[in-house]
Amino acid sequence: MALKDGTRVPRLVKLGGVIGLVCVVATGCTPDQVLRFGWPTGVTSDAAAMRQLWTWSVIAALAVGVLVWGLIFWTVAFHRKKGDELPRQFQYNNPLEIIYTVIPFVMVVVLFYFTATTQQEVQAKESDPDVAVDVISFQWNWEFRYPGYQTPDGEPVSTVGTTDWTPLLVLPTDSTVEYRLSSEDVIHSFFVPKFHFKRDTFPHPDKNNQDNVFQNSIDQEGSFVGRCAELCGTYHSMMNFEVRALSPDKFERYMDLRTRTNPETGAPYTTAEALRTMDCGQLCSPNSVTTIPFDPDREDSLPEDAGAAATNG
Fold first, then answer.
1. Which GO terms describe its biological process (predicted)?
2. How deeply is 42 buried, as exposed, middle or buried, from its count of CB atoms within 10 A (0-12, 13-18, 19+)?
């Protein structure tokens, strides 16, 4: 009997390990995804801070879970009813009550501290950002206006989306970008999943209790989908845009073109014309690569070169 009891625990450990391995493999997650506990990858330093908070929160939760499960199984295994004798009672054990009152309180305080510090880091703003962009939402598209750059006719550089062209929000990497949000009609929401951040846009930013300005810094070049995350009407689901993150030198070249006159048209360079002129591969494609424009007439399809054919923006 002792031999059987001695071999039973290792077998249970092996069985538990096999079950855990099968569960991990069955999810289809990569090792990196497992270590991040499913948290998606981001492209900003703020996203990294949020991932760290999520990771340690899950580890703490798992530790508490393992402790609770262990106490439950220990009680079931070693404190089963063995007769009519009343088990030892602990309801008036003051030290024990103090322990299970203080420990949860400490856990809440620690979690609150790290949550608050992460929130402060994400919402922090520099007094002199590298680039400022006015994000203006309307039913059902976006305008991105750069007040720090002017076209030859004296107007701020601007990109406006249409029903046949998904607007591109061109931004520099490794720079502090300030977003100033507003709406022309109803409440919308500026959401870039790769930023791990969204914020509503209001028709009257000065008449609501939400800060309509935030900042971040993009860590890598790329094309990242953006969406409206607030139900705003008939074509809400199609209110897309794209963030095009370029290295600082490419961004300055892009802005240099946007502030000049296109000799072929006699008008300031549009977004599509400037990106096409730069000719730096897919990253400078005038077409949206993350979403497609929408057709309010709900036709079956749109031409693939709709973005390239657009002249506005």
1. ATP synthesis coupled electron transport
2. buried
Q: Check if CATH label 3.40.50.1000 holds for domain 131-292.
A: no
Cβ atoms of 226 and 237 within 8 Å: the answer is: no
* Sheet of strand 141-150: strand arrangement: 156-160, 141-150, 131-138, 177-183, 213-216
Tens place of pLDDT per residue across the chain (313 aa): 444 455 555 676 666 666 666 665 655 555 555 565 667 778 888 888 888 888 888 888 888 888 888 888 887 777 776 777 776 766 777 887 888 888 889 988 998 999 898 888 888 888 889 999 999 999 889 999 999 888 888 889 888 888 778 889 999 998 999 999 998 888 899 999 888 888 888 887 666 667 888 888 898 888 888 999 889 888 888 888 989 999 999 999 999 998 888 888 888 888 888 888 888 888 877 777 676 665 555 443 333 333 333 334 5
Give the domain ranges of the chain: 9-38, 39-73+92-123, 131-292
SS (H, E, C) 147-171: EEEECCCCCEEEEECECCECCEEEE
